[in-house]
Amino acid sequence: MHSLRHILKLSKRQSNPLLRYYSSENWDVVSNAEVKRFARDCMTSVGTKPEHADSLAEVLVQADYRGHYSHGLNRLDMYVQDIRTGITVSNKEPAVLKETPATAFVDGQNVLGPVVGDFCMNIAITKAKQSGVGWVVAKGSNHYGIAGHYAIKASDEGLLGMSFTNTSPLVVPTRAKKAILGTNPISLAAPGNHGDSFVLDMATSTAALGKIELHERKQLPIPNSWGVDAHGKMTNNPTDVLNGGGQMPLGGAEETSGYKGSGLGFLVEIFCGILSGSTYGPNIRRWKNTTTVANLGQCFIAVDPNSFMPGFEGRMSDLMGICRNQEPAEKDKDVLVAGDPERIHMKMCDDRGGIPYHPNQIQYATDLSEKLNVRPMATQTPK
Ligand SMILES: NC(=O)c1ccc[n+]([C@@H]2O[C@H](COP(=O)([O-])OP(=O)(O)OC[C@H]3O[C@@H](n4cnc5c(N)ncnc54)[C@H](O)[C@@H]3O)[C@@H](O)[C@H]2O)c1
């Protein structure tokens, strides 16, 4: 009754508001395999090693499939540019610089972020299986997409998985005027029974940058707590945020505990930039800068729950079930746990025979295919 089946039932019986937000009934769909093929072809066309292109393509397709369109195909052009300009390389492999039975320190050697992420999480998983915990920190990495992708790799192996990365400075800490922290995402994936899991995968800013840009394009005010102007004052004007202002940490203003979001942003930075000796805070290259090597810091942790009290999965499922079975405050909005919105989105994709894409996104992919002389992405009408 709890878990996965419960969620799948939800997605049938209710008109879920998330579905309306994420997609539209009549958008064309593209199979996961075709999205992956397209992303891989685009990356190899500019000289990416096929195995590196595969790692990247897998993260991008997972982002779109899970409903995080801001971090999927939408970002493909950015990675193409990084390889094309040579600011990210594909002729090297990540290397372990130092290790103990439970830790490893990795140099990402400036290859694509997902290549570094997969390399590090695989080491963390192996160490967790041998030592109970695997804690891997990398310097010399690049943008790695959705943090959840790496955490889920560990939970698929029956482990707790955690993943963190630092990012370009966009977030203004409480009481400050200037952005010094990234949107530094946090992810924790914890396995329950029968393939169910808790998957927290979140930025430590209130809203994603893309949402603010979208409001500006539509000339709409942004809600409170999303951003500040160049004087550090909260604003509802997206243009003020984008021109010299910055994003607010999770929690928003000081009155609503935004300093806790700043603290979480620091937590990520300590695990990533400070532990690894990569760039950190305001020293990280500005967003969309393609002339400076990123040298991001990242952290990947795997923990074997069997090192502690047996029965972790059962207790995890029990707690998630208690939450999901709560009487909702609003009748048509079921209570969810982290990972459920993505699960609902994936079910919707499966039902429609592929990932639905906004027509602009399809056009963007067509334009990119022409530019790179790659076979266009084949679309289908939804089932
Ligand atoms: N690599 C980078 O530089 C970078 C930076 C920032 C964010 N990201 C990625 O962007 C993606 C989006 O981040 P976000 O913060 O906008 O995510 P979000 O706000 O959509 O979701 C955050 C978390 O809340 C959960 N959630 C959402 N609605 C819920 C509900 N009603 N009840 C219970 N749980 C709920 C989701 O399952 C998810 O775990 C993430 O995958 C993140 O890793 C990447």
Describe what this molecule looks like in 3D.
The protein has 383 residues and is an alpha+beta fold. 41% of the residues lie in helices and 14% in strands. The chain folds into 3 domains: 3-87 and 346-372, Malate/L-lactate/L-sulpholactate dehydrogenase, four-helix barrel (Hypothetical Oxidoreductase Yiak, Chain: A, domain 1), CATH 1.10.1530; 95-203 and 252-307, Ribosomal Protein S8, Chain: A, domain 1 (2-Layer Sandwich), CATH 3.30.1370; 207-247, Wheat Germ Agglutinin (Isolectin 2), domain 1, CATH 3.30.60. A 7-stranded mixed sheet has the order 2-3-4-11-5-6-7. A 3-stranded antiparallel sheet has the order 9-8-10. A hairpin with a 5-residue loop joins strand 8 and strand 9. The longest helix is centred in the N-terminal third of the chain and has 19 residues, at 113-131. It is globular, with a radius of gyration of 21 Å. The two termini are 28 Å apart. The chain binds nicotinamide-adenine-dinucleotide (NAD). Nicotinamide-adenine-dinucleotide (NAD) is lined by residues 68, 71, 143-148, 165, 167, 183, 185, 187, 199-203, 208, 336-339, 341-342.
Topology record:
Layout: H1 3-13, H2 17-22, E1 29-30, H3 32-45, H4 50-65, H5 76-84, E2 95-99, E3 103-107, H6 113-131, E4 133-141, H7 148-155, E5 160-165, E6 186-191, E7 197-202, H8 209-217, E8 227-228, E9 234-235, H9 238-242, E10 246-247, H10 258-276, E11 296-303, H11 312-324, H12 340-352, E12 355-356, H13 359-372
Helix pairs in contact: 1-12, 3-4, 4-6, 6-7
The site of nicotinamide-adenine-dinucleotide (NAD) has 25 residues, from strand 7 and helix 12.
